[in-house]
Amino acid sequence: MKTFLIRGVPLSMQQDGWWLNAPPPPSARGRTPASRLPGWRAGLLVALIALGDAMVWQVTPGLSLAVFGVAMVLVAMVAAGRVEPGRLRVAAAGSLLSFLPLVELVQPLSFAIAVAGGSAVLAVIAGLIPAQVPRAVLRLWPLGLQQSIRDATDAVGTADGARMAGWARQAIRHWLVPILLGLVFIALLLMANPVADRWLADIAAVDPALPQAERLGFWLCLVPLVWTALRLTALRERLAAAPGARPATPRREGLINPASTARALVLFNAVFAVQTVLDLVYLYGGVGLPDGITYAEYAHRGAYPLVVTGLLAGGFALLTRRWATHDRLLRALLLVWVAQNVALVVSSLVRLDLYVGVYGLTHLRLAAGIWMALTAAGLMLIFWQVCGSRDNQWLMVRGGGMALAVVYACAFVSFDAVIARFNLSHPVTQDHSYLCGLGPSARPVIAAAEVARGHRLCPGGHRIAAPRDWREWGFRTARARNSLAVIQSKARR
Predict the structure, then answer these.
(1) pLDDT of residue 247
(2) CB atoms within 10 A of CB 459
(3) Cα–Cα distance between 32 and 36 in angstroms, integer?
(4) Could you state, in order of their start, the residue ranges of all structural domains in the chain?
(5) CA 107, 109, 114 angle in degrees (round to 5)?
(6) Average of pLDDT values for 334-348?
(7) % of the chain beyond a pLDDT of 90
(8) Residue 341 to residues 260, 271, 334, 353: CA-CA distances in angstroms?
(9) pLDDT > 70? residue 400
(10) Quick one: pLDDT at residue 441?
(11) How many whole angstroms from its chain centre is CA 62?
């Protein structure tokens, strides 16, 4: 039998494959994967949990939430290693914009902005490009929870008996002598220093109490949140992964097609024309309403349904735009219909204004007005899109940016004060129970009105509780407290 030899390879390597089972080189034996809880990452985890306990546990939400959010971002930067200067600047600006609403006032809106903005900042720190950030914001925390469970399982699985014995031997070899001699020196110094001996006695007298089950649960909830910020590099590929491509198949003509679109637009324009004419007659023409129908009822009945109508119309316009782009008749019908929808939403704003002029402002009516204005602006963007033959991505970027800007601005507006100021300065039906149930920001406005009118509107007076410490401080509440103090001091003079 002839032997096949590979020239240039040593004889020992030709005869067997011992090198395939060789142990790793000494420089690589001490390395452990990042998921095995290296000391610095475990230390940051414990430090952030301790900070979260100090900032959030049994504390009325305030400035402490913003401090904890900033700490999460800073720790994420440290754990991610070297971050490009451009990304650092984006992360700094994003953190400021995300957590500033929490400094103004902690409310559901500002909390949602902080969570979404903070998630986007973490995605930027992880190294994602701008196009990948929106999907990463939605996937960050579910993937972070999965990574936390996986890393915890790996850490427990590697802690076998041999490894634990090695750790114990190393700890004894490195720490036994320092600890024993240290205890001897401490005992001698305590004998020579009565003050230090008193301190030790006071410490020994403290009765250590185990944390409550609720507090332990709070710590466990913080673990995956903090660990997500510490493991951004491990999450980068999954956060950046694009959705799976759908198999290319011939496009089938569904219920929405050029023929159905043309017929729908003709019908919709005819139906909407009736409503547009009625609004022109009764809202703008000054013609009296039929007997038994008041302007308040007419305004209230149409304010909210017309917003839903405008939203549905916008969705239908997006679905049918691809056929209207290449057909002049469909394009003209679509533009007329979108214009009618804009007019109807403007009419709904006029109806709401009439209703508010009789019954006053509430949170729901104020929110409806904002969404009506946003709907009208979105429909005008659709009109612009159709005229310019632009794609839906163009519309989504501008419409989404406009909506985000409005929602972000709303986080800094004290709607309680706006409602109280409007209802007290206009001849509307006064609902004192609703007025007195508004938040702290409305207290200075109501107190000023009471001073001007010379009688109380709300029983029991006005008081805004001061925060117990700086963690519960909020800028808007502090402003309201100072304004109320000034008004009350003037009233006593």
Answers:
(1) 52
(2) 7
(3) 6
(4) 36-157, 258-413, 416-492
(5) 95
(6) 86
(7) 25
(8) 20, 11, 10, 18
(9) yes
(10) 92
(11) 16
